[in-house]
Design goal:
By secondary structure, the protein is α/β, with parallel strands linked by helices. It folds into 3 domains: 176 residues, Aminohydrolase, N-terminal nucleophile (Ntn) domain (Glutamine Phosphoribosylpyrophosphate, subunit 1, domain 1), CATH 3.60.20.10; 186 residues, Glucose-6-phosphate isomerase like protein, domain 1 (Rossmann fold, 3-Layer(aba) Sandwich), CATH 3.40.50; 161 residues, Rossmann fold (3-Layer(aba) Sandwich), CATH 3.40.50.10490. It contains 20 helices and 25 strands. It has an 8-stranded antiparallel β-sheet with strand order 3-2-4-1-10-9-11-15, with helices on one face. It has a 7-stranded antiparallel β-sheet with strand order 5-6-7-8-12-13-14. Strands 17-16-18-19-20 form a 5-stranded parallel β-sheet, sandwiched between helices. A hairpin with a 5-residue loop joins strand 5 and strand 6. The structure holds 5-amino-5-deoxy-1-O-phosphono-D-mannitol. 5-amino-5-deoxy-1-O-phosphono-D-mannitol (M6R) binds next to helix 10. The site of 5-amino-5-deoxy-1-O-phosphono-D-mannitol has 15 residues, from helix 10.
Length: 613
């Protein structure tokens, strides 16, 4: 939820830290701070608000040094204020900590530390880490200060419960930074005469794409001369550097005003890159041979937010293409279900970041119940990819906008590819149907290229409706989850009240919220359910709604007298149509938010990766 970054090298670290914090800002943006080791002393600058506020304060204080770290905060414990901003210090002021995550037992630790005489200056859970390390430094025995620090961090970790990643800088070891993690992301970047720590790769991608992944409980130590990873006992762990195939350009706005808009336009490429691996041998990915695939009877798909909506579309794919009953759950709910242990079952976790705490918890639960687990994930080396038995990567490049777009459409195509594969392997679909489905899948990037041309038309439409109080989205079958996703996109970035429903459900209650002029978006490609959707259009229009139909070309003529506006999306197969149908709704959310002057890439109260439960 927070973004953390660290540097040690031979240059002044301040420009790097500020640049990295801006790249990490999507993880949290209510306050920010940096600590720099300047001439043997720690200088800290913190401010409330976005990184640009911190930048002003840093410009004034002008700290300089070759080791430093920074933090951009999404508040959990304590309101956004300067005192609660990171970095946090121990009593001596010689040791500082930045932290992402939650220390669940911080209250009892704080009480204990206070009884030893430690003085606290914030309401945060983070501050206990600094004081606990200070305390442990007094009691560990070591040959030198570096070893002492590592031992104190290790001892501290054994007292902390929760999920966290934190970095430590100590004036007595000015040439190094140490970082450690439990169930929260942390990567080491390997540069030339300089090395980095960060919550994720885009923070330092402009400087290196060579990374080391750190496992839970390990401690990473970076110096200008190199980086090493130690286990809790201080032994050096062998770790191969991984080259990340993302480039800096994809992590930048590339001429677009906002990441959200850029990432909508990234979709043809993201689909193309994801589909390049769609015909892979899923039996290898799943670690199941054909006999085991034939036995597969139960699939549980778990996810949160937009990924959950993609999973809901996946349910139709698994049932129709693979003949497998699929159960879709919100990860936050799944964790508390009474799961009946099963044999021959697969749990699929869908996640852009691979760091969502709820999803990780749900996977853990599925594992305990005997499920084989598969991740559909966008981030290489993320916690989810290491937890699951198999991984299918979406190749979208970094998604920076808090509101997901390109990863959502790629997740749907990944689920389709997998359902197709399972269906062929278990005999539910013939080779001919498989080949036809595969062909349709490969045509998607081209159709997506057409779909993104809808921006102008949607932008124009928003002029008329952006002031409405409430927006409704309706769809059926595979387009029902698209109605949910359309509503989520709009809520997230424009703060408008928006709801998505299965069109057949409105008469059971939701229709009562429709009023004169309420914009109602109908997801109604010209498919087998088209006529049912026309009835829903009439029902809404009869109550005064302003009805917008999102349909394919064949739907235009029959709709003429029943709706107020028609948006034509390119046609693909009925099952894949949702991948294109969401595009006008992504533009809708963007343009309504833009007209309302919302902070599109930093929607209030949100963060990109929700690494707390
Ligand atoms: O990284 P994940 O896909 O696991 O994240 C799940 C949700 O937090 C995420 O999809 C969220 O709903 C997005 N902000 C939606 O745009």
């Amino acid at each position: 939820m927070c973004g953390i970054i660290g540097y040690t090298g031979k240059k002044n670290c301040v420009p790097f830290l500020m640049e990295g914090l801006k790249r990490l800002e999507y993880r949290g943006y209510d306050s920010a701070g940096v600590s720099i080791l300047q001439a043997g002393q720690i200088v800290t600058v913190r401010s409330v608000g976005k990184v640009e506020e911190l930048e002003k304060a840093v410009l004034q204080a002008n700290p300089q040094g070759m080791t430093g770290m920074g933090h951009t905060r999404w508040a959990t414990h304590g309101k956004p204020s300067e005192e609660n901003s990171h970095p946090h210090t121990d009593c001596t002021g010689d040791l500082v900590v930045v932290h992402n995550g939650i220390i669940e037992n911080y209250l009892s630790l704080r009480e204990k530390l206070e009884s030893y005489g430690h003085k606290f200056s914030s309401e945060t859970d983070t501050e206990v880490i600094a004081h606990l390390i200070e305390e442990n430094l007094l009691h560990v025995r070591a040959a030198d200060d570096e070893e002492r620090l590592i031992k104190a961090i290790s001892k501290t970790n054994s007292s902390l419960s929760g999920a966290f990643a934190y970095y430590v800088m100590w004036a007595r070891t000015p040439y190094l930074l140490a970082g450690t993690k439990i169930q929260n992301p942390m990567v080491v970047g390997l540069g030339k005469d300089e090395n980095y720590l960060a919550s994720d790769v885009p923070a330092f991608l402009a400087h290196t794409n060579k990374v080391l992944f750190v496992e839970d409980g390990e401690i990473a130590v970076i110096k200008s001369s190199g980086a090493k990873i130690l286990n809790a006992n201080g032994s050096v762990q062998k770790r191969k550097a991984v080259k990340i195939d993302w480039d800096q350009k994809t992590a930048e706005k590339g001429g677009y005003r906002h990441f959200l808009l850029k990432e909508i336009y990234d979709q043809p490429q993201a689909l193309e890159d994801t589909l390049r691996t769609a015909r892979m041998d899923f039996s290898k990915v799943l670690g199941l041979d054909t006999a085991a695939i034939r036995k597969l009877r139960t699939v549980h798909i778990i996810a949160c937010g937009s990924a959950y909506h993609a999973a809901l579309v996946g349910k139709y794919y698994l049932e129709q293409l693979a003949g497998i009953v699929a159960n879709v759950d919100l990860a936050s709910e799944y964790k508390y279900r009474a799961l009946v242990p099963v044999k021959d079952a697969l749990a699929i976790a869908v996640s852009q970041s691979g760091e969502t705490a709820d999803t990780l918890g749900a996977v853990q639960k599925a594992k305990e119940a005997g499920f084989r687990t598969l991740a559909i994930c966008n981030v290489r080396g993320s916690s989810l990819t290491r937890l699951c038995d198999g991984v299918f990567y979406t190749h979208c490049g970094p998604e920076i906008s808090v509101a997901s777009t390109k990863t959502f459409t790629s997740q749907i195509t990944a689920l389709y590819a997998m359902a197709m594969f399972l269906g062929q392997a278990n005999g539910n679909i013939s080779k001919a149907v498989f080949e036809k489905s595969y062909k349709e899948l490969l045509m998607l990037p081209k159709a997506m290229n057409e779909a993104v041309k809808l921006e102008y038309e949607v932008r124009h439409l928003t002029r008329k409706i952006y002031k409405a109080d409430r927006f409704i989205f309706l769809g059926r079958h595979v387009n029902f989850p698209i109605a949910l996703e359309g509503a989520l996109k709009l809520k997230e970035v424009s703060y408008k009240s928006a709801e998505g429903f299965a069109a057949g459900e409105i008469k059971h209650g939701p229709i009562s919220v429709i009023d004169k002029g309420t914009p109602v978006f109908m997801l109604m490609p010209a498919d087998g359910l088209f006529d049912k959707m026309v009835s829903a259009c009439q029902e809404c229009r009869a109550r005064g709604a302003f009805v917008v139909a999102i349909t394919t070309k064949a739907g235009v003529k029959p709709l003429k007298n029943f709706v107020d506006k028609i948006i034509i999306v390119p046609k693909t197969s009925d099952l894949l149509q949702p991948v294109l149908d969401i595009v006008p709704l992504q533009f809708l959310a963007y343009w309504i938010a833009k007209r309302l002057g919302c902070d599109i890439d930093h929607p209030r109260h949100l963060a990109k990766s929700v690494t707390v439960e």
